[in-house]
Amino acid sequence: MGGATRAKWGACAVAVALVATACGGGNAARAGVVSASWGDPQNPLEPANTNEVQGGKVLEMLFRGLKRYNPRTGAAQNVIAERIETKDSQNFTVTLKPGWSFSNGEKVTAASFVDAWNYGALLDNKQKNAPFFQYIDGFDRVHPDNGVATARTLSGLAVKNDRTFTVKLRQKFSSWPDTLGYAAFMPLPRAFFTDHDAWLERPIGNGPYIVDSYEKGSALRLRKWAKYPGDDPARNAGIDLRVYTDSNTAYTDLQAGNLDLVDDVPAAQLKSVHADLGKRYINQPAGIIQTLAFPMYLKGWGEPGKDKVRRGLSMAIDRQQITSEIFQRTRTPATDWTSPVLGTDGGYKAGLCGEVCAFDPAKARALIKEGGGLPGGRMTITYNADTGSHKDWVDAICNSINKSLRDDNACVGNPIGTFADFRNKIAAKGMPGPFRNGWQMDYPLIQNFLQPLYYTNSSANDGKFSNAGFDKLVNAANAATDSKEAVERFQAAERILARQMPAIPLWYQNGSGGYSDRISNVSLNPFSVPVYNEIKVN
């Protein structure tokens, strides 16, 4: 930040909710440990209950699953899986590598996966990621759409021995193995089930780090697990994730030498970040898209005919101007609902959204008028105010909409204090109008940009959109054994989104971060998350 103070203690004084040793001294405690900005996750750090970025960062350090996504290419690569075999894309045999254990000494076995997946799928456990198990046979009995569960375990899972289990899916799903690097599919130790409350206080995993301590609202301290059996051990002594409720404060602490790493450079700092950090600034493409989702559960936004209003609002937004003026080459106007990171073979298709993602104020006004106008004559855009500098771009979108509609009061921002409160209001269906709904891919498949967000009752379908035609095409795409055919069906489903506009694609987002001269070998993976285990302390 231009003109920012370099006074170490002055910057520390305004940091939010940091522990006493976070700034200044404490060199012994910090030896070899990387300090990084963070935000409290919405839910406890259960693999099947974490579907947002902040919690996902931690799970990537605490756990290893059957597969992991290559931190350079995003490719799904075997980790604990020795092999995953199938003859029909519906019945799979999973064989584990020997030698893996949890940090408490317990062996990782086939039951570690099967028990974890059964727990995650069961309706009674209220896990956010339960829908990720929906393709396993028996999901409809352990997690019915209505009523109570009539089974406790998935009939499609069976343990054969310590190193082997089988999976039967409800339908063919040729790319299913490539989803298994996602956090929901991580294994769990017996301690998770025998003393759940204690496990939540101090999670036990099988990744390169162990939990040293966690003070909610302040800091989560992770330390290197010396006996980690994987081939990607931590190259530092640990990671201190410090909670910030303002990304500008985190950036100021980075400049002042009180923080080693930020992975959310605020929009207000982008004009000066090159001068501030030089080669220690990271800006690279990532599998992230920012959208505005609509509360389809509200009559004013979701009733028949309101698709015209939603499409009109999309055409009222000048994406090019906003990305150029605010984001300084860290965003690109979106023309579909996926990400260029996927590539054309992976399902990205530039321009698929068509004219409704192009700025056209005259058509915007006409469509909104045809759709009966804005509900109540005015709209709000709700966002969390603690991270991401969302206020800047939300205000810019509202200004664009107001100018397009020739009404200075048509749109206004509606900030919610923290990310956790924001997510809780979304979960309670408490959004009065469109709301920020960024998506960071869980795994690099077009399916992951569509099904979790827009398939009926899916885990991240925050606007509660439901369309039978969309669901049918997604099912058909998942069943396709040919990848090209699958992509074509997914893109046909996207064209339904272009007609219905349950969420407005805004822009594709780069990963953006910065680090101090105290550390090196810093990079972001295709998910825009720092590759924490590779960071070295100089």
Keywords, please?
globular, disordered N terminus, alpha+beta, 538 residues, six-stranded antiparallel beta sheet
Folded structure, characterized:
This protein is of the alpha+beta class and 538 residues long. The chain has 19 helices and 20 strands. The chain has helices at 8-13, 27-30, 53-62, 110-121, 139-142, 190-194, 196-201, 247-256, 273-277, 299-302, 307-315, 319-327, 343-346, 361-370, 390-405, 419-427, 446-454, 468-479, 483-500, and strands at residues 33-38, 67-69, 76-78, 81-86, 91-96, 157-161, 164-168, 209-215, 219-224, 238-243, 261-262, 281-293, 331-333, 379-384, 411-416, 435-436, 439-440, 503-515, 519-520, 536-537. The strands form six sheets. Strands 11, 12, 13, 16, 17 and 18 form a six-stranded antiparallel β-sheet that branches. A four-stranded mixed β-sheet has the order 1-10-9-8, with helices on one face. Strands 4-5-7-6 form a four-stranded antiparallel β-sheet, with helices on one face. A hairpin with a 3-residue loop joins strand 8 and strand 9 (219-224). Helix 11 (307-315) runs antiparallel to helix 14 (361-370), helix 14 crosses helix 15 and helix 17 (446-454) runs antiparallel to helix 18 (468-479). The two termini are 24 Å apart. Residues 1-29 have low confidence and may be disordered.
